[in-house]
């Protein structure tokens, strides 16, 4: 039985760390997307303020199975 997946890309942000930015991205996506299966971090960036790191950002690709796939 074959399945079909879709992939979206979101950016999570955190004042604490890149890891927390990834967790924020996945947590927010989980509010509206069912059947999430995997994630891939495709990039890191951040915001500076006053010469210091103010925010960590992670670009995260999230894959999920399309409803009705594999039936």
Detailed description of the structure:
With 71 residues, this protein is an alpha+beta fold. The protein has one domain: Dodecin subunit-like (2-Layer Sandwich). It contains one helix and three strands, in the order E-H-E-E. The chain has a three-stranded antiparallel sheet with strand order 1-3-2. A hairpin with a 2-residue loop joins strand 2 and strand 3. The N and C termini lie close together (7 Å). The mean pLDDT is 94.
Summary keywords:
71 residues, alpha+beta, Dodecin subunit-like, 3-stranded antiparallel beta sheet, 54% strand
Counting helices, strands and paired strands, the structural category is alpha+beta
**Extended strand count:** 3
Percent in strands: over 45%
| Rg (C-alpha, Å) | 15 Å
Largest sheet: 3 strands, antiparallel
Mean pLDDT: 94
CATH class designation: Alpha Beta
CATH topology: Dodecin subunit-like
CATH superfamily: Flavin-binding protein dodecin
- How many structural domains? 1
List the helices and strands and how they pair.
Layout: E1 5-14, H1 18-30, E2 36-49, E3 52-65
Antiparallel strand pairs: 1-3, 2-3
Quick structural summary:
With 71 residues, the protein is an alpha+beta fold.
């Amino acid at each position: 039985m074959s399945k079909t997946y879709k992939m979206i890309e979101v950016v999570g942000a955190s004042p604490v760390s890149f890891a927390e930015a990834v967790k924020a991205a996945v947590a927010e996506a989980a509010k509206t997307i069912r059947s999430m299966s995997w994630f891939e971090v495709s990039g890191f960036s951040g915001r500076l303020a006053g010469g210091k790191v103010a925010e960590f950002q992670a670009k995260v690709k999230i894959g999920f199975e399309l409803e009705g796939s594999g039936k």
